[in-house]
Amino acid sequence: MAAADNLPSLRAVHLLKTFGDGASQRTALRKVSLNLFPGQLALLMGPSGSGKSTLLAILSGLLHPDGGQVLTRPNDQTSFVDIWGISEAARDDFRRKHTGFIFQGYNLFPALSASQQLEIVLKWGNNLSPGEARRQAEEMLDRLGLLNQRHKKPAAMSGGEKQRVAIGRALVKNPTFLFADEPTSALDWENGQAVIQLLRDAAHSRGATIFVVSHDARMLPFVDVCFHLDDGNLEEHEIPLVVAGE
Ligand SMILES: Nc1ncnc2c1ncn2[C@@H]1O[C@H](COP(=O)(O)OP(=O)(O)OP(=O)(O)O)[C@@H](O)[C@H]1O
Ligand SMILES: [Mg+2]
Question: Ligand 1: which of 32, 54, 211, 233 to mutate, most ligand atoms within 8 Å of CB?
Answer without folding.
Answer: 54
